[in-house]
């Protein structure tokens, strides 16, 4: 089956991007190299075509029904806020981690590309009405410390984790890199002018390769790796998202886990080497076994970092990894990788 | 360049008398993406043809570079320990990985033209 491509595919081809298959999609992996793009986003500004992600428009009247399906408080947060949350199933496991953009009259829900169909049928099952705007729009993430300065002549900049809109664009000051920036949703017919605006500002295209190293360095989980239908937000060390005080799907098990240590736990680790402990690498901390969910090289720390899922709370921070037959030591870190 | 030969596993070697210099091809470095770490062999280590000699860590994946023939390591490019990106920048020049004394000659690698056809 031919892979899907985004509305901006012609641009990626013109920039001689390297492509990677990502679920049903063929997406730019890199343009000038993952490390170079990583550093562009850490030091200036880069943009990512993330139009493979879903965009569902939901009328405000549906908000209570959605609230029953997610672990975070959506109703009581102010209008024009953005919210990261998790759709959980009856067992409290993660169906998807998503972003909501609240506007006065509607909500934009952004699920992961691989979970769009699942979330749509989940919403339908629970009588939530939505309009799927994914194919009619593009989504561009502009990220990096110079982003706000560069785009503020066209975009009125909202506070962090807040939304705004112009006649043509819906956007929020959100992202997936740990840097300041915005994510912009535009109708397909407005995509070219947005692209021209960004490139004329000298903002460089960046691919999914650097998006992955950036999100990992920013300690952010990726669905399919850290999050699956076999892990709860508590187990994934995302208890900070549990702000929904009412009952919601799976809340019973999640609340029980909060007062127990008898469950799986996701931890971050650093290896004092460039040797990478990749996904499914086995490790052991004391008596506690774990499996790496994501691992890569951190260009800023110049070390290898990652997430590891342990069977239960490890009794020590020292991890012994078996990396392709070699015993390599690393350490659990409880703070963020970057300050 | 014309004396450099290529393997289906994307290494190149240059044989001079009974010594070979080995690295990975431009195609291979391009497929791997940014190389961040290499595990080099030690001088004196012996390898049979096809054995994994160098482990190449890139942001995208990890891969091995294999011995083109039975050989004993005589030198390694220690510059790669601190500047592994040299392989990306100059895979067939400064990005060489090791030199080795040939124990059993097997000069069956592909020419540049044959390799170009192989990877295209």
What does this entry show, briefly?
By secondary structure, chain A is an alpha+beta fold. Chain A has eight helices and 19 strands.
Question: What can you tell me about this protein's structure?
Answer:
The complex is a heterodimer of chains A (339) and B (120). Chain A is α+β, with helices and mostly antiparallel strands. Among the domains of chain A are: 9-51 and 134-217, Probable tRNA modification gtpase trme, domain 1 (Gyrase A, domain 2); 264-333, Aminomethyltransferase beta-barrel domains (Elongation Factor Tu (Ef-tu), domain 3), CATH 2.40.30. Chain A has helices at residues 9-14, 34-43, 63-67, 116-125, 147-151, 191-200, 208-217, 251-258, and strands at 18-22, 25-30, 46-49, 56-59, 82-88, 94-102, 106-110, 131-132, 137-143, 163-165, 169-172, 181-187, 204-205, 265-271, 282-285, 288-298, 303-310, 318-323, 326-333. In chain A, the strands form 4 sheets. A 6-stranded mixed β-sheet of chain A has the order 10-11-12-9-3-13. A 6-stranded antiparallel β-barrel of chain A has the order 14-17-16-15-18-19. In chain A, helix 2 packs across helix 7 (208-217). Chain A is globular and about 60 Å long. Chain B has 120 residues and is α+β, with helices and mostly antiparallel strands. Chain B has one domain (10-104): RNA polymerase II/Efflux pump adaptor protein, barrel-sandwich hybrid domain (OB fold (Dihydrolipoamide Acetyltransferase, E2P)). The radius of gyration of chain B is 13 Å and the shape is globular. The two termini of chain B are 19 Å apart. Chain A binds chain B through residues 18, 29-30, 33-35, 209, 213, 273-276, 278, 296-297, 324, and chain B through 30, 33-34, 36-37, 39, 55, 57, 59-62, 84-85, 88.
């Amino acid at each position: 089956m031919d892979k899907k491509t985004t509305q901006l595919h012609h641009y990626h081809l013109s920039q001689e991007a390297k492509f990677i298959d990502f679920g049903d999609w063929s997406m730019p992996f890199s343009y000038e190299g993952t490390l170079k793009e990583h550093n562009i986003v850490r030091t200036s500004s880069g943009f990512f075509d993330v139009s493979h992600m879903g965009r569902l428009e939901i009328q405000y009247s549906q908000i209570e029904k959605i609230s029953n399906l997610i672990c975070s408080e959506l109703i009581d947060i102010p209008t024009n806020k953005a919210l990261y949350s998790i759709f959980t199933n009856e067992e409290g496991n993660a169906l998807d981690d998503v972003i909501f953009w609240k506007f006065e009259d509607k909500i934009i829900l952004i699920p992961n590309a691989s979970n769009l169909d699942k979330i749509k049928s989940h919403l339908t099952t629970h009588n939530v009405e939505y309009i799927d705007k994914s194919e009619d729009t593009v989504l561009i993430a502009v990220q990096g410390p110079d982003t706000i300065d560069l785009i503020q002549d066209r975009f009125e900049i909202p506070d962090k984790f807040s939304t705004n809109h112009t006649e043509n664009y819906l956007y929020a000051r959100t992202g997936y890199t740990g840097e300041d920036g915005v994510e912009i949703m535009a109708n397909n017919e407005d995509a070219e002018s947005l692209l021209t605006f960004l490139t004329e500002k000298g903002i460089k295209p960046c691919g999914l390769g650097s998006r992955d190293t950036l999100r990992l360095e920013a300690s952010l989980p990726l669905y399919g790796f850290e999050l699956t239908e076999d892990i709860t937000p508590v187990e994934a060390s995302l208890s900070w998202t549990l702000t929904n005080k009412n009952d919601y799907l799976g809340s019973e098990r999640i609340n029980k886990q909060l007062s127990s240590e008898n469950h799986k736990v996701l931890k971050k680790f650093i290896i004092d080497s460039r040797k990478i402990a990749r996904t499914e690498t086995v490790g052991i901390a004391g008596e506690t076994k774990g499996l790496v969910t994501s691992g890569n090289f951190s260009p800023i720390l110049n070390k290898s970092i990652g997430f590891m899922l342990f069977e239960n709370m490890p009794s020590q921070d020292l991890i012994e990894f078996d990396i392709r037959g070699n015993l390599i030591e690393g350490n659990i870190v409880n703070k963020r990788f970057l300050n | 360049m014309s004396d450099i030969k290529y393997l289906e596993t994307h290494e190149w070697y240059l044989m001079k008398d009974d010594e070979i210099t080995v690295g990975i091809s431009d195609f291979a470095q391009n497929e791997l993406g940014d190389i961040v770490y290499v595990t080099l062999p030690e001088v004196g280590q012996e390898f049979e043809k096809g054995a994994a000699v160098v482990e190449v860590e890139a942001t995208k994946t990890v891969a091995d570079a294999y011995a083109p023939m039975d050989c004993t390591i005589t030198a390694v490019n220690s510059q790669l320990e601190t500047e592994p990106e040299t392989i990306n920048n100059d895979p067939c020049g400064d990005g060489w990985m090791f030199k080795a004394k040939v124990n059993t000659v097997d000069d069956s690698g592909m020419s540049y033209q044959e390799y170009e056809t192989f990877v295209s």
